[in-house]
Structure formats: structure tokens, C-alpha cells
Automatic annotation (TrEMBL):
It holds the Pfam family Acetyltransf_1. Keywords: Acyltransferase, Transferase. It comes from the Bacteria. Residues 1-152 form the N-acetyltransferase domain. It comes from Pseudodesulfovibrio nedwellii. This is Acetyltransferase. CDD domains: NAT_SF.
Length: 152
């Protein structure tokens, strides 16, 4: 099941994002402070026992731009369309908010291409560069991410 994240999910989300090597994920870790501040951005996938097994966030960047970020699904639960459901839930929320342009930075281009995202030059994402990329330890020389955009 996919649902909005709740305060008692923060530790599980943090665990997903902090153990990216263990889960073969390619996401940047987030601090507890960041997660509490942006909890409303997150949706989670939960198993039958309501245990968090995946997460994704929709981050509002500007009046006409949002970002899909922090997408992780535990390896044991991959192949069940949970990643797709998490992203699609975020995209529906973006439409509800009136934001029809959504991007992601990813190394998993085929996954996002199947969802309708297309590659875009990083130069079109000036807001993102100033918000997050300048503070990222991978920027600029070690970043392998590709910008992908979908117009809803």
C-alpha cells in the first residue's frame, strides 16, 4: 500500500536513505532534521504489517517546478511495481498542486523513461543547481546523474 508518510515513519525513511549502499540505491542521505522539515513531501510504501519498505518525495522547487527525489524500495520488495506506484503518487500530487513540470536527477534513466520522463540538459534546472547541487558532495566533478523531466 502507498500512503502519505507520518511522523512515526521518519526513522524508517532515514534508515532507507542512510543505507543506500546496502540497498543498491543511488540517493543522497538526508538528516533527521531534513526529514522532519520535509515530511509532508514523502509518500511511503508499506507491507501488510505497516512496515515502511519504500519511500519517495515530491519537493516543490519553484512555482512551476517540482522534483521527484529520495526514491528507494527495499531490495526484497523490488519488482512489484512499488517504485512506479510511489512516483505516480507523487506525480498525481503535483498535478493537484498545479505544478505540471516535474524533474528528477537520476542514474536510473530507463526506469524514469518508462514513466514518461525524457532527458533534459542540467542547464534548464537553474533553481535546482542553487538549491541542492552546490551543497552536494558529488557536485560538480563526481555527479553521474542525468536530469529527466516530465510535463504533465
Amino acid at each position: 500500500m502507498i500512503r502519505k508518510a507520518r511522523i512515526d515513519d521518519v526513522k524508517a525513511i532515514h534508515g532507507l536513505l542512510m543505507h543506500t549502499d546496502e540497498h543498491d540505491a543511488l540517493v543522497l542521505p538526508r538528516s533527521f532534521s531534513q526529514l522532519y522539515s520535509h515530511l509532508r513531501d514523502f509518500v511511503v510504501a508499506v507491507d501488510d504489517d505497516d512496515k515502511v519498505i519504500g519511500c519517495c518525495a515530491l519537493s516543490l522547487i519553484w512555482e512551476n517546478l517540482a522534483e521527484i527525489r529520495s526514491l528507494v524500495v527495499l531490495p526484497a520488495h523490488r519488482g512489484k511495481q512499488l517504485g512506479r506506484q510511489l512516483v505516480e503518487t507523487c506525480l498525481r500530487e503535483s498535478v493537484t498542486l498545479g505544478i505540471l513540470k516535474v524533474y528528477t536527477l537520476t542514474e536510473e534513466t530507463s526506469f524514469f523513461a518508462h514513466l514518461g520522463f525524457v532527458e533534459e540538459g542540467m542547464e534548464s534546472l537553474n533553481q535546482k543547481i542553487f538549491i541542492d547541487c552546490l551543497n552536494c558532495p558529488r557536485f560538480p566533478d563526481h555527479c553521474n546523474e542525468v536530469a529527466m523531466i516530465i510535463n504533465l
